[in-house]
Amino acid sequence: MGSIFQNALNQKKIFNGTDVLMVDKTDKIADKPLGDIVLFAVKPQDFPKAAKRLKGVKNKLIISIMAGVTIAKIKRLTPGNRVIRSMPNLGAQNFASMTVWKADKTLSPKEKGIIKKIFSSIGEEIEVNKEELIDSATAVSGSGPGYIYFIAGEMMKAAQKLGFKKIEAEKMVKQTFIGAVDIWKSSNLPVDVLEAKVKSPKGTTEAGIKEFKKNRLGKVIEKGIAKAHRRAKELSKF
Question: Domain 144-235 belongs to what architecture?
Answer without folding.
Answer: Orthogonal Bundle (1.10)
